[in-house]
Design goal:
It is a single chain. This protein has nine helices and 18 strands. By secondary structure, the protein is an alpha/beta fold. The chain folds into four domains: about 70 residues, no CATH class; about 100 residues, no CATH class; about 30 residues, no CATH class; about 60 residues, no CATH class. It has an eight-stranded mixed beta sheet with strand order 5-6-7-8-9-10-11-12. A three-stranded mixed beta sheet has the order 1-2-3. A hairpin with a 6-residue loop joins strand 16 and strand 17. Bound molecules: zinc ion (2 copies). One zinc ion (ZN) binds next to helix 8.
Length: about 350
């Protein structure tokens, strides 16, 4: 329980047993970056109530604290020959963000692989992956989506334990398949080059799936977070757009601001209520497991809907863009994900390490 409560507000440190801290390393029993004794800290944490107002105030104080302490230009750990941010134990990776244990990669976000190009959320025992999303434990995979334990597959979608296959979807434990139809090895090896040749002529080979077949609109996808578009420009580029209409419901509705401040005051009938998001007014519900989790850990009910909470969390991460600016202590030129007009104090790694 302590750990869960602890992580609600703790951010950007390697300190343990610390609440509402930022940029602390190898420390413990800290509160707003101030050192407390173990006893003082434990008294505080045992008495602290995770009410809605306390959580909100603490988040605001932490945001203020973030502006007072230096930040490292990039978060790189044990890596060489890189360009990007949040890179650990990696080598020869360019324009990569949030990758680990990777080598020879370019344009990889959220990855862990050897030799990858244009991939998102892909990796884990993976190599030679090109233009793919959500592919795990894979080798020589191109233009695939959400596949696991696949080898030598192209344009496959939601497949598992599939090898030497093309254009298959939801097909498991198979090989030498084209459009979900099984062929002999010889037939497959004759057909595949002909298909690729044809697709090269039509201009289809080398591109990821057509966005028109996406099941969700651009505005509901993570792309909207990283590369925001309005409806007209999204549709011009061939993306779907989801029009939002408030669902009809017989349930009682409550505005988020009218929710009890303390979880102990929340009654079970909240499960039969829709809560109106404090940010965009979208209704959302609390499910029984969620309510029991909040009650067990003494956490106040959330006021924003799930989507707004997700975007709030993502908003705490720096953008996946690199800027050239200078260290605010020694003036040396640095590359960083902190855009020059931001208010944080940004140091080069050397100055940052001297400061902590
Ligand atoms: Zn919302
Ligand atoms: Zn410096």
């Amino acid at each position: 329980m302590f750990l869960i409560r602890h992580f609600v507000l703790h951010a950007g440190c390697s300190a343990k047993c610390a609440l509402e801290t930022r940029g602390l390393y190898h420390k413990e029993y800290c509160l707003f970056n101030k050192q407390l004794s173990r006893e003082q800290y434990e008294n505080f944490i045992n008495e602290f109530k995770f009410t809605y107002t306390n959580i909100k105030d603490s988040k605001e104080k932490l945001a203020e604290l973030r502006l007072k302490v230096p930040h490292k230009n990039l978060e790189i750990d044990s890596s060489e020959n890189y360009l990007g941010d949040y890179i650990s134990n990696s080598k020869n990776c360019t324009d990569c963000f949030d990758i680990m244990e990777s080598q020879d990669c370019k344009y990889v976000w959220d990855g862990m692989m050897n030799t990858g190009y244009d991939c998102f959320n892909t990796g884990l025992d993976a190599s030679f992956i090109y233009e793919s999303v959500g592919v795990y434990r894979a080798n020589n995979v191109k233009f695939c989506n959400k596949c696991s334990q696949v080898n030598d597959t192209f344009y496959c979608d939601y497949c598992y334990k599939l090898s030497n296959s093309f254009g298959c979807t939801n097909l498991n434990y198979n090989e030498y398949c084209i459009l979900n139809k099984k062929y002999t090895k010889e037939e497959y090896e004759k057909l595949l080059p002909r298909i690729i040749e044809h697709m090269k002529k039509t201009g289809e080979w080398g591109e990821f799936f057509d966005p028109k077949i996406s099941l969700i609109g651009y505005n509901s996808s993570m792309a909207q977070y990283y590369f925001p578009l309005d409806e007209t420009s999204a549709e011009k580029q061939g993306f779907l757009w989801e029009a939002y209409g408030k669902p009809k419901t017989e349930l009682k509705s409550t505005k988020a601001k009218d929710l009890p401040n303390d979880i102990s005051e929340v009654k079970d009938d909240i499960l039969n209520t829709t809560i109106e998001c404090e940010k965009d007014g979208k209704p959302f519900r609390i499910i029984p497991q969620e309510l029991s989790f909040y009650k067990k850990h003494g956490l106040a009910l959330p006021h924003p809907c799930h989507d707004c909470r997700h975007f709030e969390r993502k908003g705490k991460m720096n953008p996946r863009k690199l800027y050239d600016r200078t260290c605010m202590k020694c003036g040396t030129e640095i590359t960083t994900t902190y855009e020059p007009s931001r208010k944080e104090i940004v140091y080069c790694e050397k100055c940052y390490l001297e400061n902590i």
